[in-house]
From TrEMBL:
This is 4-oxalomesaconate hydratase. Keywords: Lyase. Residues 76-310 form the Amidohydrolase-related domain. Transmembrane segments: none annotated. InterPro entries: ACMSD, Amidohydro-rel, Metal_Hydrolase. The lineage of its organism: Bacteria, Bacillati, Bacillota, Bacilli, Lactobacillales. It comes from the Bacteria. It comes from Lactiplantibacillus paraplantarum.
Length: 311
């Protein structure tokens, strides 16, 4: 078990997941088959914070977001808003009650109730210092997150200076989705769609944090530069990305080479990736082996997060 004393230099995990217990129980009353549909739900560390703390071997402070379980996929717009609102209150309370584990939480928004989503952003998130931004997914209700229907969320995030956490989800139109490659592909597609839609041109102050090191983007910089316009290629560099690729210092070097050390943040996808509570130790070890300066390693581990979150 890690020491409970947290220093200012403890790494900040920008992308870690939980399953808030009260929210989960509400969802189970709506559909009791959820644990059978999604095997990743059945992870003790998502629900049991004492177990999570006891099994953690590296001291980090996590920004927690809800695991993929979105009310709009199960209920109507009003019920989805109520579920998201209550879940966000629960997430914020979890962060407040466990300051050594969690620096803050990312709010859910109901994608079938955009007026309600905007209300969450303007009232609930802005009114609670433990809610640091909102989580969106690469697709919602069968549509790309870059569709014009969802642009009000990006506009409001820019106006309020709220970061967006972008998480992948399977594209259900495809018959061959898999956990090894599909989510990284979906992240890459969503990033390109946002760039091609000109979201950073309309909202230059927008902050979007992309999971899994930006998917395929760092590996295809040449194609991005050759095929897209110069402005579109520059806009790809405006995303922030995390380090959640289960180690691999050479891949992380490439990630920094593309996005810049100031746009890469320590993130692990905890408690997934490495049992029982995530790959924090593995990823931190990979960062130590990167071909970057000690100052840049410090940026990735915590100072970028502190700056981005205004901590």
């Amino acid at each position: 078990m890690i020491n409970n004393l947290i220093t200012e230099n403890v790494p900040i995990d920008i992308f870690a997941h939980v399953l808030a217990p009260q929210f989960y129980q509400r969802m189970l009353t709506i559909d009791h088959t959820i644990p059978d549909q999604a095997a990743y739900i059945n992870n003790q560390a998502l629900l049991d914070l004492k177990y999570r703390q006891a099994k953690q071997i590296v001291a980090t402070r996590q920004v927690i977001s809800m695991v993929n379980l979105n009310p709009e996929d199960y209920v109507d717009s009003e019920q989805a808003l109520a579920l998201c609102w209550a879940a966000n209150e629960e997430l914020a309370a979890m962060a407040a009650q466990n300051p050594n584990q969690f620096i803050g939480a990312v709010a859910m928004v109901p994608m079938n109730n955009l007026a309600g989503a905007l209300k969450i952003m303007t009232e609930q998130v802005m009114g609670n210092p433990k809610l640091l931004g909102i989580q969106l997914f690469t697709r919602a209700l069968g549509k790309s997150i870059a569709t014009i229907d969802y642009e009000p969320l990006f506009a409001m995030a820019s106006t309020l200076a709220l970061p967006i956490w972008l998480h992948p989800i399977f594209d259900t139109r495809k018959p061959d989705n898999n956990i090894v490659f599909s989510w990284e592909y979906e992240l890459t597609q969503a990033m390109q769609q946002l760039v091609l839609k000109g979201v950073f041109q309309r909202y230059p102050q927008l902050k979007v944090i992309v999971h899994h090191a930006g998917g395929m983007v760092p590996f295809f910089a040449g194609r991005i530069n050759a095929i897209l316009t110069p402005q579109q290629a520059r806009d790809f560099h405006k995303f922030f990305v995390d380090t959640a690729i289960l180690g691999n210092p050479l891949a992380l070097d490439l990630t920094v080479a593309f996005f810049g050390a100031d746009h890469v943040l320590f993130g692990t996808d905890a408690p997934f990736g490495s049992l029982p509570v995530g790959a924090s130790a593995m990823i931190l070890k990979a960062i130590t082996k990167m071909h970057i300066s000690d100052q840049e390693k410090q940026q990735i581990e915590f100072t970028n997060a502190l700056r981005l979150l205004n901590q």
